[in-house]
Amino acid sequence: MCLLVLLAGTAQASGLADHGDDLFEREKIELSVNGFFRLRGDWLNNLDLDRGTTPSGQPLFAVPLGNPTGQSLFAADMRLRTDLAIYAPFAAAAVKIRADLIDNLVLGSTPVLSPGAGNAPTPAASPGQFPATLLRLKRAYGEVLTPFGYIAAGRMGNMWGLGLMSNGGDCLDCNLGDAADRIAFVTSLAQHLWAVAYDFSAVGPTQYRKDAQRQLILDPSTDVHSVSFAFMNVKDDHTRKRRRIAGKWTVEYGLLGSYRWQDNDVPASYLAKDTALTPTSVMRRGYKAGVVDGWLRLQTPNFKLEAEAAVLIADAEQASLLPGVLLRDRVQSLQVGGAIETTIGAPGSVFTGGLNLGAASGDPAPGFGAFPPAGSTPGAGELDGPQLDIPRDTRIDNFRFHPDYRVDRILFAEIVGTATDAWYVRPWTKTRLLEFRSYQLELAADATFSRAFYASSTPGNDAGLGMELHAALTWASKDGFDVLAEYAVLFPFAGFDNPAQSLTAQPAQLGRVRLAWRF
Fold first, then answer.
1. Please, are residues 183 and 142 in contact by the beta-carbon 8 Å criterion?
2. Per residue in 331-385, pLDDT tens?
3. Residues forming a β-bridge with 450
4. CA 185 to chain centre
5. pLDDT in tens, 277-295
6. Strand, helix or coil at 279?
């Protein structure tokens, strides 16, 4: 017999500390279904900043195709997310699945052939992902609670701290989200959670077996392995609320260490299609990387501080992509990033505010290095570009925030792509304008000041990036329906000017409306 129940959040867990609370013995099979449907539209005005083109002839942001001097672009998309948990009877075990049935489908992207008919929708692929399909299965894993601890295996969410490096993408406006093919074990000892995880980060070229269904990994030495260790002191929402009402402080923290390595590589398997692979296709890579990431949350009855800081060190013995053509110099990296979020005011207060700030280490190479175009070469005045130029430059030191960790709405979110090679300060406020039994109306406002660490990374060869002002009006219903309307304006500084064409960067604007149904 199957019993359908709704348990909010149980299938949405992304971090190692989020799992296991919903596992207990049940008398019947139970299902938990939750998620959201999101519909949003964007108006983007002058995001190329009217500062002309870069030396490669490209604007900083897309412009209207038929009128390159035009100012406005529009887009609307939708997502239907479902998180399903299936709980086994007579055991503290479950199987959990995340499937986005419609994932960032651009409205109107399906050509209409005749009234009431059209082609099958094809959502656009996100940067760094394979082309999307109408049904995208993002997570599928099993978990069990044993007398020794919690065990999980499969493709599961990957979240840590504020989400600077690893972000599960669980928020309403998140677009990407990390998942890991992982085997994890978490246990409790000395009032802390201790976790160890092994990730199948990537494998080398594969070949189908005789049944044309299963595959073999042709060279295990080309696999990318990751091992992570963490210890955490975390509380659940009920405990935090109880301690806050009692006037007590709550301190939570965690430390994550992760190590990744790859011995050999087969570049032909991902650089050239339909290429015959031979033993000579295998080449030495010698890649090793380690990261230490610390997280802290301090909460009092009227104040909250949450912070995350990470240090990443990497070394690649051989950076060549051509077998038999070896490079003399190693490629190395030292990246540092961190962020602090503060909230003044008790949860539920009419007025709250705070100060957020963060920094991501940079690299003196031209361009921000957020999403370097394939095959591009370093060039002064470009918005983006590779931070590597062997043999003259063998270091990549720019730390990149995860794109789902939102710093602003225009500069980092749209023009650069993510926060990197910069620091920022962001004061914010939120006021509850109206409150009724089933809904409330809130107004939020913030200002983000940002500056680059290296002037050479900016298109204008100046460290000043910009000041962005943002306001958002939210209608939130306790029944699960939300409406968000927001507006942002960016006042760019000299870092986005165009000295070669004697043009000064002009302000950019963004407007967004979002409808969300949560279930």
1. no
2. 999 999 999 999 999 888 999 999 999 999 999 999 999 998 877 777 899 999 8
3. 424, 466
4. 24
5. 888 889 999 999 999 999 9
6. helix
Domain extents for the chain?
Answer: 2-518
Q: Name the residue type at position 513.
A: V
Question: Which residues, in sequence order, are CB contacts of 273 under 8 Å at separation 6+?
Answer: none
Nearest to 202 by CA among 322, 285, 118, 143: 285
Q: Which residue is listed with tokens 């887009």?
A: 75
How many alpha carbons lie under 13 Å from residue 212 in its C-beta half-sphere? 0
Give, as one character, the DSSP assignment of residue 409.
Answer: S
Distances (CA, A) of 244 to 190, 233, 241, 301, 307: 24, 17, 5, 5, 19
400: tokens are 């990149």
Residue 458, C-beta contacts closer than 8 angstroms, at least 6 positions apart: 368, 452, 465, 495, 496
Query: What distance in Å separates the CA atoms of residue 142 and residue 466, rounded to the nearest whole number?
Result: 46
Q: Which residue, 157, 139, 151, is CA-closest to 195?
A: 151
> For residues 500 and 471, is the Cβ–Cβ distance under 8 A?
no
* 303 bridge partner residues: 300, 344
CATH of 2-518, one of 2.40.160.100, 3.40.50.300, 2.30.30.30, 2.40.40.20: 2.40.160.100
Q: 366-385 as b/e, with b when 16 or more CB fall inside 10 Å? A: bbbbbbbeeeeebebbbbbb
Contact 409, 468 (CB under 8 A): yes
